[in-house]
């Protein structure tokens, strides 16, 4: 069962990333949708899950504070790369920003795998519920990983390397749970931090770029569609 789940996470993530690479000429539209999915993942998946997992040990205020801290941390790091890039005409530091964003997405995918593995330790039924929820947004994970690289002037080869990394990350996450157990409330706090990361990546990085020098009506509609699709998928997966 675990092997099949691992294989599915790899396949679905790769499909999302390859879709983004195939339709790179429509990147502004894909970025609009991608921004919606990543914001939706933060608001409809990571934040509720963080609150639920941490509720017995930490208040909701503590969890949302960590979301804000995650947002601020990513903001400071992003501004550092931007300021440093002013003295660099090669675009190398844009690549650093893309690598950092893709890295955050990959760590999130690793945590997805951990969530699956830890849930199966509780019960097979809970493991299957968590698996469905994770698989539901793996396509958008692949999409977002490729887009954050391409948006920051990374090459297709770099995007593909990060896509493979993101696709394999849940497998490593699942495998890691064979050797340890992480308290649910601590995992909840980690998810809260990544919720802040995702809000920054989506709202402050990908979204503005999606309508830069392009008509905003279609990108706006696609952003809303991306949020709505994540909401529907997560609700269906949890029902």
- Taken from the alpha-carbon principal axes, the silhouette is globular
Count of helical regions: 9
Give me the count of strands.
0
Strand content: under 5%
Span of the ends, CA to CA: 21 Å
* SSE run: HHHHHHHHH
Total domains: 1
Chain-averaged pLDDT:
82
Uncertain spans, ≥5 residues at pLDDT below 50? Answer: 83-91
Output the structural class. Answer: mainly alpha
Q: What helical percentage do the residues reach?
A: over 70%
How large is the radius of gyration?
17 Å
**What's the story with the biggest beta sheet?**
none
Topology:
Layout: H1 2-22, H2 27-54, H3 60-85, H4 92-122, H5 124-136, H6 138-151, H7 156-176, H8 184-210, H9 216-238
Helix pairs in contact: 1-6, 1-7, 2-3, 2-6, 2-8, 2-9, 3-4, 3-8, 4-5, 4-6, 4-7, 4-8, 5-9, 6-7
Question: What would you note in describing this structure?
Answer:
The protein is an all-alpha fold and 239 residues long. The protein has one domain (2-238). Helices cover 85% and strands 0% of the residues. The protein is built from 9 helices and no strands. It has helices spanning 2-22, 27-54, 60-85, 92-122, 124-136, 138-151, 156-176, 184-210, 216-238. 49% of the residues are buried.
């Amino acid at each position: 069962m675990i092997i099949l789940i691992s294989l599915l996470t790899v396949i679905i993530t790769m499909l999302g990333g390859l879709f983004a690479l195939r339709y790179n000429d429509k990147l502004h539209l894909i970025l609009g949708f991608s921004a919606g999915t990543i914001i939706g993942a933060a608001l409809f998946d990571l934040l509720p899950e963080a609150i639920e997992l941490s509720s017995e040990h930490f208040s909701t205020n503590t969890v949302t504070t960590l979301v804000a801290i995650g947002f601020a941390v990513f903001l400071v790091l992003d501004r550092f790369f931007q300021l440093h890039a002013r003295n660099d005409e090669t675009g190398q530091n844009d690549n650093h920003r893309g690598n950092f964003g893709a890295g955050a997405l990959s760590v999130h995918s690793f945590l997805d795998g951990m969530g699956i593995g830890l849930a199966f330790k509780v019960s097979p039924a809970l493991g299957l519920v968590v698996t469905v929820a994770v698989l539901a947004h793996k396509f958008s994970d692949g999409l977002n990983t490729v887009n954050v690289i391409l948006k920051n002037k990374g090459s297709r080869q770099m995007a593909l390397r990060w896509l493979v990394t993101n696709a394999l990350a849940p497998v490593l996450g699942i495998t890691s749970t064979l050797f340890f157990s992480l308290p649910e409330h601590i995992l909840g706090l980690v998810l809260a931090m990544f919720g802040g990361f995702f809000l920054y990546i989506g709202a402050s990085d990908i979204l503005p770029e999606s309508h830069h020098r392009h008509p905003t009506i279609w990108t706006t509609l696609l952003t809303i569609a991306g949020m709505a699709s994540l909401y529907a998928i997560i609700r269906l997966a949890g029902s």
